[in-house]
Amino acid sequence: MERIGVFLCSGCGIGEALDLEAVKRIAEELGATCTIHPCLCSEEGVAALCSVLDDGTNDSLVIAACSPRSQCRVFSFDAEKTTVERVGLREQVVWSHPAGDEDTQAMAEDLVRMSIARMGEEKLPVRLEEEIADPVLVVGGGLTGMEAALAAAGMGHPVFLIESSDHLGGALSGLPEVLPVAPPYDRPHQSMIPALIEQVEKNDRIRVLLSTKISSIKGQPGQFEMDVEGPAGAEHLLAGAIVQATGAHPYDVSKVVGLGYGSLPDVITAAELDAMLASGRLARPSDGQTPKHVAFVQCAGSRNSDHLPYCSGECCATTMRQVLTLGRDFPGTEASVLYRDIRTPGQLEHLYQAAQEQPGAFFIRATVRSIEGSGDGRMSVALEQTLLPELTSIEADLVVLATGMVPNSADGEAIRMLHDAQNRVEHGESDVQKEEAQKIVDELRAHEGTEILNLEYRQGPDLPVLAYSFPDSHYICFPYETRRTGIYAAGAVRAPMDPAQAMEDAWGAALKAVQCIEAAKRGEAVHPRSGDIGVPEFFLQRCTQCKRCTEECPFGTLNEDEKGTPELNPLRCRHCGICMGACPERIISFPDYSVTAVSAMIKAIEVPEEDEEKPRILGLLCENDAYPALDAAAQLGKNWNPWVRIIPVRCLGSVNVVWIADALSRGIDGVILIGCKHGDDYQCHYIRGSELATTRLENVQETLDRLALESERIRIVELAHDEFSRIPTILDEFAETIDELGPNPYKGF
Amino acid sequence: MARTNVLAPSAELREELRRRGGASAQRCFQCATCSAVCNLAPDGQPFPRRQMLMAQLGLIESLAADPAVWLCHNCNDCTVRCPRDARPGDILQAVRSIVIERLAMPHWFGSIVAHARSTWPLLIGLPLAFWVVLLGVTGHLTMPARVANYGQVVPHVLIYAVFIPVSLWVLCAAWMSGVRFWHLLGSAGPPRRGSFIGATFSTLGEIASHRRFALCEAAHPRRWGHFFLMWGFIGAAVTSGLLVIALYGFHMEMPLPLDHPFKILGNLSAVFLLTGGTMLSFQRIRGGDATGQTTAFDSFFLGVVVLVAVSGALVEIGRFFFSGEVAGWLYIMHLTGILTLFVTFPYSKFAHMVYRTEAMIHQKMTEEG
User: Fold this and answer.
1) B224 and B91 together in one domain
2) B174 vs chain A: nearest CA distance in angstroms?
3) Which domain holds residue B135?
4) How far apart are CA A495 and CA A470, in angstroms?
5) Which of B3, B4, B5 to mutate to test the interface with A (most CBs of A within 10 A)?
6) Residue B29 to residue A393, Cβ atoms within 8 A
């Protein structure tokens, strides 16, 4: 941008703490116009901002007032006409540093210099205008899928409901009763499936495709093109967004040695008992006799590191439902529930309480060691860790294993690795390479043919999975949002859940799908940078086909042509900039966020001479967690070292290592990066950003060591949003370290 | 505790507990809040969490041999704090009534008292009929115009002729039940090591001072009610003994003057009995979690105690204020109440005197260190 207007707000104590006239002189020296206003967020203040834009004096604004996280609505302008840079003088300078101090003033001046420099490198983004398809594709015709289809249709979108079997209903098909989904939650609920099937079939907007498989999906949100194969032959469909509701299946409990499933005829699974209860005839498979005492074994294979390490959160409630049904339909039958902990989350606790009151129900805390026939046609269940030492086994006529849920998902990344390895086995260059590839093939062979969505994505044909094969993104912060933009997971495929949760999930995912289609129509990013319009640009003439961007994008945004040149699908992009951080050639940039813009900011920092003994530290803070945490610390009146100059970044993954080189060669004494937690319980909004940054930084630190520059000058710290009280300490400690290391030897070069 | 490897859970006990006011055991989910808040539970053998589980599983044999059932003073701190409203206090109370019935000698008499809800008219009516018939047969049913001496209504010799054999019989029955219980207690858990005499003295000291009862939080006021009632009984028993000596050893003239030490002791006992009885009745009527469920088994025992105390007091003032007819019949009612109390002693709630004392002695003898 060329005509930069700097506005300094003197309200909220900024004017008293800083010499704003001095700041103004600096801005004007840098070629910007500069105005000091007593209250920029007032009507008069906003009018002043608008008037310089309207009369053409300025095309871009640097608003040096409060944090960019406050007064967002007041300071919002048409992104296609104006770029705006906010400088948080109030929080990060005035509230957190002594008024009238030389260092405080220097900090404010630097921040304004940096913003002007950045503004000089920014360009106006251009809004995408594409043809967007309205329909929602729902994959899976069970409870979640039908509910999601009805939800999306209710919001006015056409729906394709694809089901691989020949009937709707999914895992709950044929069950007369399911877990309660409505108050008082203390008894089994009549199955909602028949009514849902009727509603789905009656709905004009929903097209049900039974016995249908997806052969391929290509494109991007708003423009998914699908080939499906059904009884009527192949068909080509267009959809704007996809909801994957493929559900789950019970764990194969015959793998659990000792429980006797498969070898003892009277050991059955919860699903088999359900079928029995549905038929109205309770009979032992071995002799057809009615069992007098039924033992329920909870956590059959669940919460067991050799089988399902997780709790499905639903099997206990299912047992409660079965105990209640047994008591109601077969009075006099006794039931022992052998449990480690009863886990009936939420309202299902009422069901547990009702089952406890059942006259013939016994709740026995125990770990089941083994189940054996006891000779007289009964079975002996050996118990461990009971609450009574003398209680070491019980006898039962029928044993029911409460099995956990395994998602009906396909591991897209594993399938891709398998295919790549198969390719290397066939066309590998050396025998060593072929052997290594064969090992991978053997290891991943189970994934062969498991494809569900058949996405034509460079990173694999299905959603990437997280722990235990559940294809979710962040289950607390971003439920339903998978790592493929425009594709949402809902129901038991996303996380183990009961029908009430699945129905809620269906609505959540349907809303996300509709939101995505609407955002695509406006050419905006859908989440988490909702409303952002600037898509990345690739200067492909300089691309070396290193494939780092296509590999590292957490969202599979980039496909590749045959040579390996990236192909952008802008509507898949979440604008995090991880590709920008990855690119060694620095050819990827956003109009309003680029390698050169941040480099310019770094170069705008005034570095005092060595003899002034005032080190300078660059802080690159993730704008999602660390930067708001810094604001929160300032709001609490915390102080931190005034040598630090903060630049917010979209994600630590967007940090290009050239910025560190720029900083060190400018004489800046240290660089600290603060980003989100990574690992299994990651909090990174872009999933892998902070993790990638850590790896990249390790490489940089090695280089520094080779250059005889202390690697301690660079530090990367993980911080959660709620750890704001830690952040001043982190900065102060780093400043101390830098002080001990002494000045950067490159200072002054 | 029965040491069997296969414990068959049984739902039979559930109905039994329900009938005795303990319908809530199944709600327990073994969080052990009850054991944590109980001030009476010994550190090494906390209760009543474990007893709740045994009640759920129907393990009455184990419960019958468990001293914890009797170490419980029904403070109801557990019931007040139970997050699931499983009311451990009520469950243990119900278990105690089952144990009393199971150990009763003869068993059929235990069953009659255990069913006091329907049998109470019989338990009071029969002793009344007994007195009426006895007095009729011996020709004492005509009341004097004014009672100067209750020997005129019922000759002292008749009283002693009835109560001495009844007491002997009752003591014998209680002794047999007590011995059975002592063996049961010894059949499970850690072996007894300490001195029986020492443990007994220490237990009696605790009972005299109600030191354990004082640890109750929720039911704190009951401590004093029970304290007065117990000392009132002891006072009345001592007075009765002294009167036998006074009558037959020193041939003293009855009634004794009001300033006679024996009379003062007797009257003081009456005041204690009335105070304690009133306090406990008030607690029961007020109800609530701190009191726990009140069953017919509780009301019957407390009712008889109140009958004895109130009729006793009325008899004393009746000599001065009432006609001979009224005073005479009040005296017969008083003797009826005492007879019921005596006869049902090993089978009613009164039997806790034996079992709780034994459990406390057993606990002291098995305690580590």
Assistant:
1) no
2) 31
3) 107-366
4) 6
5) B5
6) no
- Tell me which residue of A75, A81, A97 sits closest to A633, measured CA to CA: A97
Give the torsion through C-alpha atoms of A400, A402, A405, A406, to 10 deg: -60
Nearest to A162 by CA among A194, A135, A188: A135
Judge if B21 and B59 occupy the same domain: yes
Domain boundaries, chain A: 1-124, 136-247+450-521, 251-407, 537-585, 593-749
Chain A residues touching B5 at Cβ < 8 A: 390, 392-393
Average pLDDT over residues A14-18: 96
Topology given in CATH for the domain delimited by A251-407: FAD/NAD(P)-binding domain (3.50.50)
Overall domain count for chain B: 2
Report the alpha-carbon distance of residue A89 to residue B147 in Å, rounded.
104
Tell me the average pLDDT of chain B. 92
Q: Tell me the residue type at A364.
A: I
Q: How far is A311 from chain B (nearest CA, A)?
A: 19
Q: A363 to chain B: which residues are within 8 Å by CB?
A: 29, 56
- The DSSP element (H or E) to which A646 belongs, if any, is strand A644-649
B69, B103, B137 - which closes a domain: B103
Distance of alpha carbon B68 from alpha carbon B88, whole angstroms = 12
Considering the domain architecture, whether residues B67 and B111 belong to the same structural domain is answered as no
Residue of A nearest to B58 (CA): A362
Structure tokens at A254: 């015959």
Secondary structure (3-state) at A443: helix
* Shared domain check, B147 and B285: yes
Cα A341 from Cα A146, distance rounded (Å):
33
Give the count of beta carbons closer than 10 Å to the beta carbon of residue B299: 17
B2 CB neighbours in chain A (<8 A) are: 390
Do the two domains A136-247+450-521 and A251-407 of this chain adopt the same fold? yes
Q: pLDDT band for position B1 (50/70/90)?
A: very low
Q: Quick one: pLDDT at residue A104?
A: 97
Q: What would the pLDDT profile of A470-485 be if each residue is shown by its tens digit? A: 998 777 778 899 999 9
**Is there a single domain that holds both residue B120 and residue B251?**
yes
Average pLDDT, chain A: 95
* Dist. CA A379–CA A395, nearest whole Å: 6
Q: What is the ipTM of this complex?
A: 0.88
CB crowding A687-722: b at 16 or more within 10 Å, else e: bbbbbbbbebbeebbeebeeeebbbebbbbbbbebe
| Confidence (pTM) | 0.89
- A295 to chain B: nearest residue by CA? B9
Is the peptide bond prior to A528 cis by the omega test (within 30 degrees of 0)? Answer: yes
Query: For residue range A358-410, what is the model confidence (pLDDT) as tens digits?
Result: 999 999 999 999 999 988 889 999 999 999 888 899 999 999 999 999 999 99
How many Å is the Cα radius of gyration of chain A?
31
Of A334, A365, A393, the CB nearest to B5: A393
Please check whether residue B27 is in contact with residue A352, taking contact to mean a CB–CB distance below 8 angstroms. Answer: no
Q: Is residue B3 part of a domain?
A: no
Could you tell me which CATH class the domain A1-124 is placed in? alpha beta
Residue B5 lies in a domain: no
d(CA B77, CA A513): 54
CATH number for the segment(s) A537-585 = 3.30.70.20
Contact between B57 and A391 using a beta-carbon 8 Å cutoff? yes
The C-alpha atoms of residue A498 and residue A509 are separated, in whole angstroms, by: 16
The residue out of B103, B130, B161 marking a domain boundary is B103
Residues A510 and A206: their CA atoms lie apart, in Å, by 13
Residue B12 touches chain A, beta carbons under 8 Å: no
Q: Does domain A593-749 have CATH number 3.40.1000?
A: no
The pLDDT of residue B3 = 38
Which homologous superfamily is A136-247+450-521 in? FAD/NAD(P)-binding domain (3.50.50.60)
